[in-house]
Write a structure and sequence with these properties.
Helix content: over 70%
Strand content: under 5%
Shape: flat
Largest sheet: none
Number of strands: 0
Order of helices and strands: HH
Distance between the termini: 14 Å
Number of domains: 1
């Protein structure tokens, strides 16, 4: 389930710089 969220986040991050930043933060926390 978490992987699906990550994939969606990465997909959105491509067109959303803030989304990419959020994914980086989640990656560091995870």
């Amino acid at each position: 389930m978490f992987e699906a969220i990550v994939k969606i986040g990465l997909k959105e991050g491509i067109s959303d710089p803030e989304g990419a930043t959020t994914m980086k933060s989640l990656h560091l926390l995870g």
